[in-house]
Write a structure and sequence with these properties.
Elements (H helix, E strand, L loop, with lengths): L11 H12 L1 H16 L1 E2 L9 H7 L10 E2 L9 E2 L5 H18 L4 E3 L5 H12 L5 E5 L15 H5 L1 E5 L9 H11 L3 E4 L10 H11 L2 E5 L4 H5 L12 E5 L10 E5 L4 H12 L5 H14 L2 H23 L3 E2 L8 E5 L7 H10 L2 E2 L1 E3 L13 E5 L1 H5 L4 H24 L1
Parallel strand pairs: 1-13, 5-6, 5-7, 7-8, 8-9
Antiparallel strand pairs: 2-3, 4-10, 9-10, 11-12, 12-15, 14-15
Main location: cytoplasm
Enzyme class: transferase
Protein name: Serine hydroxymethyltransferase
Length: 417
């Protein structure tokens, strides 16, 4: 694992790179360059993190060779049966993985660990609940939602009749607007969850609204799943009909997705994943997800997530002290958005300048953003990755001051243009 200075306490990556370089010098050299970039940069992208060597090893194990279309023959819920022989070992791992995730979130929901990504989890979740042409009420990408929450360029915006609820003048989800639009449009599905929202999401209130209009309620907790697991954010379980997530953000696992659903939806969920959306599952990634679930049940993980939240609050407060505008005025979780509309440069300009200075973040739209998506008037920053590497509050305050120096330099450059 990398520490805050970039030193790796393990030789796992170095040995892997040497092995790859022997077989493919071209691929090996670029993996090595990426490894060096990750070691030397301050990683602030809110959707990225560092997983353990054990998870990396599972993802690169002999399970990569095994095809296993279908589901384990013995399961607690959902569809059963494979379309290939020789699955007795991966069956054990996959069902164990499901059981461990139930323990992580203290739920009796059905679990499907086969989705290859969060987007594919959402694709299957929609299919399990509604049909093309049905109405979905969700948070727009401009206000902090995800592509799969109705963007016009995504399957969700093309297959479904999307209606969006707004945020208020302070950037908070406008629950009164949710109520009004739910009553007006009578959606088949209401979606809560976001990729760039820094406040607590009121799942219970959403569930009450969905119940009143006869809609299903789905939560995409991809970003905050680790906070939910550690008790740092209210749980959607017991309120949502379906919960989707990724495993590689605050959960610190392999890249992949999962779907949780009320027991009565088990077969619909499984059929929507396979055979509707996917073929064979990635059993090597599922093994990594199982290890991730074990790690998420350890006391050290709860301590880690608590520090993620403390670090994010300190990071945000430092920007506020320096006079920056933060969407919603603060943060309750692992990320926040800087609103740069008072500056002449764009979020993309700041992203590039930070890249040159060894700080990785991403441009991001802010509510009512006047700039196009490839430019944006904001940037998104998060604390999960660097907290894994040992950063504490003062480390993030210093990063804020470094970014401030970059901003001041950009202000000077754009003033001269």
């Amino acid at each position: 694992m990398l520490d805050k200075t970039g030193k790796d306490s393990s030789n796992y990556n170095a040995e892997n790179i040497r092995l790859i370089q022997e077989a493919s010098p071209f691929v090996g050299q670029w993996i090595e360059k990426e490894y060096e970039r990750q070691k030397n940069n301050v990683e602030l992208i809110a959707s990225e993190n560092y997983c353990s060597d054990a998870i990396l090893a599972a993802c690169g194990s002999c399970l990569s060779w095994k095809y296993a279309e279908g589901y384990p023959y013995e399961r607690n819920s959902g569809n059963k049966g494979r379309y290939y022989g020789g699955t007795e070992n991966v069956d054990q791992i996959e069902e164990y993985c499901c059981e461990q995730w139930r323990k992580v979130f203290h739920t009796d929901y059905h679990v499907n660990v086969q989705p290859h990504s969060g987007s594919q989890a959402n694709f299957a979740a929609y299919r399990a609940l509604i049909r093309p042409g049905d109405t979905v009420l969700a948070m727009s990408l401009d206000n902090g939602g995800h592509l799969t929450h109705g963007s016009s360029v995504n399957f969700s915006g093309k297959l479904y009749n999307m209606v969006f609820y707004d945020v208020d003048e302070n950037g908070y989800i406008d629950m009164e607007d949710v109520r009004k639009k739910a009553k007006k449009y009578r959606p088949n599905l209401i979606v809560a969850g976001a990729s760039a929202y820094s406040r607590i999401i009121p799942f219970e209130e959403f569930a009450e609204i969905a119940k009143k209009v006869g809609a299903y309620f789905m939560v995409d907790m991809a970003h905050i799943a680790g906070l939910v697991a550690a008790g740092e954010h209210p749980t959607p379980f017991g309120y949502a009909d379906i919960v989707t997530t990724t495993t590689h953000k605050t959960l610190r696992g392999p890249r992949g997705g999962m779907i949780f659903g009320r027991p009565e939806l088990a077969k619909k969920i499984d059929s929507a994943v396979f055979p509707y959306a996917q073929g064979g599952p990635l059993e090597h990634i599922i093994a990594g997800k199982a290890i991730c679930a074990e790690e998420a049940q350890q006391p050290a993980y709860r301590e880690y997530i608590h520090q993620v939240v403390l670090n994010c609050r300190a990071f945000c407060d430092e920007f506020l002290k320096m006079g920056y505008t933060v969407v919603t005025g603060g943060t309750d979780n692992h990320l926040f958005l800087l609103d740069l509309r008072d500056h002449r440069f764009s979020g993309n300009d700041l992203q590039k300048a930070c890249d040159e200075a060894g700080i990785t973040l991403n441009k991001n739209a802010v509510p009512n953003d006047p700039r196009p998506p490839k430019e944006t008037s904001g940037v998104r920053v998060g604390t999960a990755a660097m907290t894994t590497r040992g950063f504490l509050e003062e480390d993030f305050r210093e990063v804020a001051r470094r970014i401030d120096r970059i901003v001041k330099k950009l202000d000077e450059e754009f003033e001269e243009k």
